[in-house]
Design goal:
182 residues; mainly beta; 5-stranded mixed β-sheet; 3 helices
Length: 182
């Protein structure tokens, strides 16, 4: 069994009898479960991941998704991932502890684990934007054997401070301020 880079799946077996009705009915134990699992995996009934929603916002205001951030903003990134359960015939939350978020320009500036929000299908990361402006990406690139691959990039510009957003008086410059009045 193999899965391509485009998530296409293929299974090659040494015998077609493995999938015949006679052998399927005769085998009661592990062979039967193995064939059922192999067929459901090959036809996309198991091991399929889906991204439902990606959302990022300011840490203090979750009412909207901004089109840009500025340096040193505190932000929250959430992603909603589900997997298909063929027995229940519905999408259920996918729970794992090895999912990571990368905040990338050319190289990852921040790489951190996404934490699972219990009772939902949502993963969450909170961090401060680094002191570097440019066009960044939120990137979730998840590859796990037996599951479809996830690659979710989201571009976002990071702008420098405007001239009126800097602090008015810098504490390091107080000697210079005093010389003005001296």
């Amino acid at each position: 069994a193999t899965q391509g880079r485009n998530n296409a799946r293929a299974v090659i077996t040494g015998s077609l009898d493995m999938f015949s009705n006679e052998l399927f009915i005769k085998s009661k134990g592990a062979n039967r479960r193995y064939v059922q699992h192999l067929v459901s995996w090959n036809f996309g009934e198991s091991g399929v991941l889906r991204v439902n929603k990606v959302f990022h916002h300011f840490a203090h205001d979750s009412s909207f998704q901004p089109s840009e951030y500025k340096l040193l903003d505190d932000i929250v990134y959430t992603i909603d991932i589900t997997t298909y359960d063929a027995t229940r015939k519905e999408w259920v939350p996918y729970v794992t502890d090895d999912l990571y978020l990368e905040f990338v320009m050319l190289d990852p500036y921040i790489r951190m684990p996404l934490t699972y929000v219990p009772g939902t299908s949502t993963y969450k990361a909170e961090f401060k934007i680094p002191d570097k402006h440019g066009v960044f990406q939120f990137k979730v690139d998840y590859k796990k054997h037996g599951f479809t691959f996830l690659s979710v990039p989201t571009k976002i510009p990071i702008r420098p401070f405007k001239h009126n957003e800097y602090e008015r008086y810098l504490s390091d410059a107080f000697p210079y301020y005093l010389t003005v009045f001296g």
